[in-house]
Amino acid sequence: MTTIDRVSAMPSSVRLHTPFVTALRRTETTDTVVVTVTDSDGRTGWGEAPQVWQVTGESLAGATACIEQMLAPVVVGRPLDDRDDLAAAAALVQRAVARNFGAKAAVDAALHDLVAQAEGTSVAALLAGRPDGIRDRLTTDVTLSAGAADALADTARRRVAEGFRTLKMKVGTDASTDVQRVAAVRDAVGADVAIRLDANQGWTREEAVQVIRALEVADLGVEFVEQPVVAEDVEGLAWVRERVGLPVMADESCYGPHDLERIIRLGAADLVNVKLAKCGSLTTGRDLLRRAHEAGLRTIVGSMMESHIGVGAAAALVAAEPTTEVSDLDAAWWSVASPVEGGIAYSDNEIQLPAAGGFGITRRA
């Protein structure tokens, strides 16, 4: 019988090649807790919990304490021979503590990694429940950090030259100049590059309607506008959506099933952004995507500022349960190096996933 022997949590800080700036924060590093789960056969599964003070409220210290004091004790010593054992262990992780979704997602990912390795398959195939038809290459957008119009235009040209065809602009820092910045980027890249906007809760209801209507009048070819108002104001999200023509996406307003049902009931969004650090597990993420599609909502999968470990888990989710739109999986692309060997790899605007061996991670770099 294979059992879970050990759960370890270690903080990690990876430098970014370019500062990452949104309406909520600025960072020059990716700061996470790297989780490893070791089984009695000597295999190691990997997961990652990001520090995101301004969104989830989780910190390195908090995630480490949660993993070591609450999550590890409920899984160490348990059997992990098959998918039933995986489901049982994963359920214990979810029930062990309230919230702490990043910590839960990290342990959950590592457990999935272990079982996929034992079966000689990928996490995506394990999650999908089928061995065939799983994509091993995914397209991602790339984020343009908040900044001045001229600098954004220059950065946009560079990103397109590097192979990206979908640009995610961070707005919401100044409603009076947001349209000007979008126009500068559109002029810089031409009509054939997709542009989507993320306000990161940066506007009031009224500002959101004013800016989005101005974008519509300017006919700048914006795909959608993500999280225009504060996360708790789902009614405000619906209020904005009723008054504009551009599609509206919920991100910080949508953590788990309860939030999604509220969004559906209120007609608050056209799209939702599913993230593991918000929902807490791969299976919950998969179920959120399925429910959103069932309700007629479009979808993407995103991540916080995570390394190749966390983005690898998010990419596995997309490969298992494809989204309707190009997903937001560029977070690890910003890192100067991966903290591990193996796992996902970037090539232009694509991510290469391992075909077998769980997440494909072999060791720390």
Describe the structure.
- The radius of gyration is 20 Å and the shape is globular.
- Helix 5 packs parallel to helix 6 (178-189) and helix 6 (178-189) packs parallel to helix 7 (205-218).
- It has a seven-stranded parallel β-sheet with strand order 5-6-7-8-9-10-11.
- The model has no long low-confidence stretch (mean pLDDT 97).
- The chain contains twelve helices and 15 strands.
- Helix content is 39%, strand content 23%.
- The longest helix has 19 residues, at 101-119.
- The chain has helices at 60-75, 83-96, 101-119, 123-128, 149-161, 178-189, 205-218, 234-243, 257-266, 276-279, 282-294, 308-320, and strands spanning 4-21, 26-39, 44-50, 137-139, 142-144, 166-170, 194-198, 222-226, 248-250, 271-274, 298-301, 340-342, 345-347, 350-352, 361-364.
- With 365 residues, it is of the alpha/beta class.
- The two termini are 31 Å apart.
